[in-house]
Amino acid sequence: MDIDLSSEDLAFRDEVKEFLDSNAYKNGEDYNAWRLNWFKLAREKGGWDVPKWPVTFGGPGWTPTQHYIWEQQTAAAQIPWDLPFGLSMLAPVLMNYASKEQQDRFLPDIRERKVNWCQGYSEPGAGSDLANLKTKAVLADDGSHYTVTGTKIWTTLAHIADWMFCLVRTNDSGKKQTGITFLLIPMKQDGIEVKPIITLGGAHSVNMVYLNEVKVPVENRIGEQDKAWTYAKGLLQHERTGLAGISRSIVALEKLKKQAMTVKRGNATLMDDPAFRAKVAELEVDLLAVEFTELRSLAAAAGGSDPGPESSILKLKGTEIQQRVQKLTVEAGGIYSAAWGALPVGHKFAKGGMSGYLASRAYTIYGGASEVQKDVIAKNVLGIKKSSS
Ligand SMILES: Cc1cc2nc3c(=O)[nH]c(=O)nc-3n(C[C@H](O)[C@H](O)[C@H](O)COP(=O)(O)OP(=O)(O)OC[C@H]3O[C@@H](n4cnc5c(N)ncnc54)[C@H](O)[C@@H]3O)c2cc1C
Question: For 4, which DSSP code?
Fold first, then answer.
């Protein structure tokens, strides 16, 4: 997308480029040491390690355009791996609802990437209908701790997590949404068992987490007992915005176009095929539209507030676009995409195409399935009321 950048924005873009180029990973370097140092240097730039955090918590206070520039530049560059659970999902909840003591206890480790978090929301029987969750937490008579028992499912990276932020039921009476509490649970303790779930793409990223009479100190409760539904929904809005992956799709689509130019079609290439070109063009147009929506959402997040129900538009369209890019990549690779591992023949880029495509089926499920996003958009963005019939 071409937006008119002011001379300040152009200077900022050059500064970002310079930072990314001069701190890129060099072959042979200790990856972990490079990763931690990268975040340290980004911090020294004035909060570049936590771009979306508000200034009061050490963020850079960028304008929406600066955020956009950062997203664009980092999507195309090699930056260290980073997980969203602590940084982009839990941190805003802590900033908005936790006590000062809890903020001081948890935010620094999240910022320094010292701990891995996972998200214990979904349960068998509570996915789209999250408020149906049954994992029970009982407060001890002396008020010192909760005893938590239940099962969480699809918990991404629970097997490497140090902590889980978890929704539990503390009250069965009244509306389902009113008896939910938000707890922070250390993963390495008695009573917690993590079992892998291998997904369609062949990877182990999600798990079952069994909690059996797990003791959680009351200091690990965020906000009030029974009142966590509001905090939980705010977190989901941050999650949905992050899942859209617009800048990554732009980079992936550019890559795909180059790859398609290497695939022969008679005397020309796949990129000259009108049918293929039309699919690429449709994707480019949709990407452009969703990029503008992202800019509006960045403006809200830059102010420190939850992004709002519009995040569902980003989640819905952004994940569909990611899937379409994966699908076209498989199409461009042809039969070579179907192989699971590397092949001695065919297009190099086709390697892993099918497992990536299969894994991408989950994009329109996690963070709230597409049908649910459409419901949120209808109700909270368009203001359409459910018919009574
Ligand atoms: C790869 C992956 C990673 C995940 N990671 C995590 C994680 O780290 N932490 C976590 O807590 N959860 C995680 N999830 C869970 C995810 O959030 C849920 O799978 C999702 O919310 C859907 O819930 P469900 O699987 O129970 O499906 P269901 O809610 O049973 O839905 C089944 C189908 O019915 C449709 N449907 C449901 N309700 C409606 C409705 N009202 N209107 C129309 N259609 C409807 C859905 O769209 C879907 O197609 C992950 C899921 C996947 C696949």
Answer: P
